[in-house]
């Protein structure tokens, strides 16, 4: 049974009030999605995660287009593949847009992240807390976040 989305979480001694966070938005694609990944197989992915987990890091953040989608050459999600090789706290994003999707993502992660939902709905946290049905935003809807030229 996954943890409750609105329950607190101890992240390496830092007490978080809930398990919902803001994901960074970039025009860079995720390394965990097969179409754009730097990794071709789950073994390559898991090898990287094992190397990272051996370092002094507090958590692993996995960015996907869809947290429910299978990763690489397997039937497992990227969160499941990651969890199989590390006990570090795991953060996941990808089509997390309302309480139900966020709660489902906690089945294999410790913290869920959203980007477009935060950007396009200033009441996102309150709406999630109330269990409101919320739309899944398309990337084109979030174009307001991008600058035509980089900041200096």
Describe this protein's structure.
With 152 residues, the protein is an alpha/beta fold. The chain has a single domain, classed as Rossmann fold (3-Layer(aba) Sandwich), CATH 3.40.50. The protein contains 5 helices and 6 strands. The longest helix has 12 residues. The radius of gyration is 16 Å and the shape is globular.
What secondary-structure arrangement, pairings included, does this model have?
Layout: E1 9-11, E2 14-16, E3 20-22, H1 42-53, E4 60-63, H2 78-83, E5 90-93, H3 99-105, E6 111-114, H4 116-120, H5 124-129
What is the string of SSEs from the N terminus onward? Answer: EEEHEHEHEHH
Strand content: 5-15%
Oligomeric state of shown chains: single chain
CATH classification class? Alpha Beta
Tags for this entry?
alpha/beta; 14% strand; Rossmann fold; 152 residues; two-stranded antiparallel sheet
Give a brief rundown of this model:
This protein is an alpha/beta fold and 152 residues long.
């Amino acid at each position: 049974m996954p943890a409750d989305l609105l329950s607190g979480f101890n992240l390496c001694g830092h007490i978080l009030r809930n398990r919902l966070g803001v994901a960074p938005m970039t025009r860079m694609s995720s390394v965990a999605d097969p179409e754009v990944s730097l990794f071709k197989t789950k073994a390559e992915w898991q090898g990287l995660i094992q190397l990272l987990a051996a370092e002094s890091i507090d958590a692993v953040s996995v960015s996907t287009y869809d947290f429910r989608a299978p990763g690489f050459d397997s039937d497992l999600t990227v969160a499941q593949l990651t969890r199989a090789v590390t006990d570090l706290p795991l953060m996941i994003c990808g089509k997390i847009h309302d309480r139900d999707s966020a709660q489902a993502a906690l089945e294999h992660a410790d913290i869920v992240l959203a980007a477009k939902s935060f950007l396009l709905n200033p009441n996102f946290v309150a709406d999630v807390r109330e269990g409101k049905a919320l739309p899944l935003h398309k990337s084109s809807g979030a174009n307001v976040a991008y600058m035509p030229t980089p900041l200096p």
